């Protein structure tokens, strides 16, 4: 497994766990998606994995290295990158300045990696001198992904990268995530666009109230009547 978490108990305040005995296993080279209602603990799980929330019990491993309780600044060294749900770019800086910040530890590789990122995301290259805040929502997410890629991670955790985007832009961002797996990167994704995410992902975990609910191959859950009723139906009702 690229990533596994077992028996995770974690929260923001001592003795008030948000996650109770949560476990996930993310196969290498997969897109694994976590879905669940608002407040389910999806972001908390990502933050527990990335050392931003204290883990009081359980074990997290990345490529069989124990990373439980890792400091966020040690993540890149472990080959893990994190794209947060909010504030994942610096809007008042230019695209180039954002990428320079992400590449600050790349050493002699810096220029090469910058060119690689521009080649992968041509709209970012074109707008390199513009403020990141002026980008479209989709392009901002691509910038956030580019910043995550700067450290050449083997695992990227993305928290709702398609939130607030048009269906087309959301699809592009999800397809970008899928494309990264073709280069051997493993993706763990939190998503609210359940149908789109299930169509694209390999595996899915459903969390609710800080606990594991259902998990399995994404294609199976897409056809599962219970999942359909709770998640796909609910989404349609909200959208209408
Ligand atoms: N910084 C915080 N301090 C205290 N409690 C928090 C904090 N952040 C989140 N929580 C609580 O933890 C629970 C889980 O929140 P979390 O953000 O993990 O949910 P989520 O599944 O990511 O929801 P959403 O779909 O809205 O992003 C919620 O009850 C929330 O109020
Ligand atoms: Mg969240």
TrEMBL record:
Biological process annotations from GO: L-amino acid transport
A molecular function (GO) term = ATP binding
| Pfam families in the cross-refs | ABC_tran
Tell me yes or no: is Aminoacyl-tRNA synthetase among this UniProt entry's keywords: no
Write the record's keywords in alphabetical order, separated by commas. Amino-acid transport, ATP-binding, Nucleotide-binding, Transport
Is ATP-binding given among the entry's keywords?
Answer: yes
Annotated ABC transporter domain residues: 3-234
Instruction: Give the family, as the similarity comment puts it.
Output: Belongs to the ABC transporter superfamily.
Q: What is this protein called?
A: High-affinity branched-chain amino acid transport ATP-binding protein LivF
